[in-house]
Amino acid sequence: MHTKVTLFVQCLVDSMFPEVGDAMVEVFDRLGVPMEYPEKQTCCGQPAFNSGYSREAKVAARRFIEIFADSEKIVCPSGSCVHMVRHHYPQLFADDPLELRMRVKEIGNRCYEFSEYLTDVLGAVNIGAEFPGKVTYHDSCHLLRGLGIREQPRKLLNNVAGLELIEMNDSDICCGFGGTFSVNYPEISTALVDEKIDNILASGADYVVGCDVSCLMNIKGRLSRRGENVKVKHIAEVLAAGGSST
Q: What is the CATH number of domain 124-240?
């Protein structure tokens, strides 16, 4: 019997890409993993924290800790949000009493990114998915550099029937989104995403796949503005394709 997972659904997924959340549920259903979804969950506080508003971010963090306090395992389809909980929450509460600091650290230890949980906790690399096509993979910054997750998504993609994984050049270079960075420095952001798209196109892939919808939203928008035909998918959508729930 699998441990129940509590779904921590990133704001962008909830508001703009609900199909990613649906796909994550489909995958866990297929694997027989029980789930719950706290409807009162809100933002983890990352946008405020990244913009320098630590006090406001701490309010959101307290709310997160309250809502997920009793969750055994917390799983999120976003490396950047998991990075926030694991690594920046301890910074926000560094001057608080020891008991609270320990709670913060402990909840971070129970929080996992989706591909990480599948491979490292469940030991599942073949989800029974089928996704015909040529796919290239984008390494998002927080996922790779912050959480050290590189091979897990690739193991999952390499076990999808019909999928050909083609590595692009410089897959680990930033796409230029960076949250408010893309708003504050649009020229630099555009230059970075154009370089990313050039590498995607050079790979000959039909799809670009990633684990963070923030990056994928940025890449998808620029692909559209450039009139390119490469499609964009979150890894959960790929893993949910072609299978059947048990």
A: 3.40.50
